[in-house]
């Protein structure tokens, strides 16, 4: 049983490039990097003082999420498959239901102002100062490796071909027409093995360089690693109980010509299909939040807002509420996970349909939670994400991309959308 941190200290440090620091310490077990876009905050940590893994026990997952000892200086990864088990039953394991690590030492980079702060936590002031010293040592470390040229993976293998995906889309459209559900997010998967000299960190560095995203994350834990380039917020929780979700539904590809690129945004905003797809998930997330929020507090703050990223345009909506007294992170996650934007509506039926077309998803479409203090949490949706496992012959990877299927979905168009979403990961793995 670990105890909550009782002391916290900060120390201003000379500015360093966060990518250089992550390269220097990224081979450590537990190495963590959280990057927010091109000019946002960056958090780097390593050497956790506590780790935890839970499989098959939802009550234990909720208990850990609500444990004050895990509410500060921690990250927690919820795999998609643990959240769907009540709807789909037992399925083969891919990743643990929950992986968690707590870190006493952090480096906090504010890239807009080029300020760097070490944060140390501990059971007392002495431990907090020791954590500060550790973080300062990281800030002075020299990069251990340079950028690798050429492909990082020898192959980019589709686990099923495009014809199979289009057939799955057509089946879901037929199920919708029969009244079984309104929407389901159906994905394709690709897998391969890194070249002998490459590491998951190399993949992350390329993604951050070429297609920065608001919720980019690198995490190394034992023989597993996670690389996420996600644009999507699942939940934020603030002291006082305000909770917010920002589901993404509706996608168009980016174009190199500015006029053509703007035309894609306008087409997305004008698309009745994409707006309907987004609205279904807005209603679903309102319903999910109402389970744990003061009923009158749940509201839609913004609807169908276009956001542009390196490879795609998206429609994003914002829903907020205020948690009822006695409801915490564990209860909020139990009520809302997995995210509605990557399941469908009604959620339980959509998860059953997804399970009929896909193998277990693992961390993809799960959530990565950053815990920065009691009553405070930021959780991303793990889309644009690769899962790595180290075996005797090297690092194996798997990644997925999906599309929300509705009544008027066209299988060819949905397949093209999926390829647009996976394009940045493909380039990071297969190009220089």
UniProtKB/TrEMBL annotation:
Signal peptide residue numbers: none
Pfam families: Chorismate_bind
Chorismate-utilising enzyme C-terminal domain segment(s): 162-421
A GO MF label: 4-amino-4-deoxychorismate synthase activity
EC class name: transferase
EC number: 2.6.1.85
Source domain of life: Bacteria
GO BP, sorted A to Z: L-tryptophan biosynthetic process
Keywords: Aminotransferase, Transferase
Protein name: Para-aminobenzoate synthetase component 1
Lineage: Bacteria, Pseudomonadati, Pseudomonadota, Alphaproteobacteria, Caulobacterales
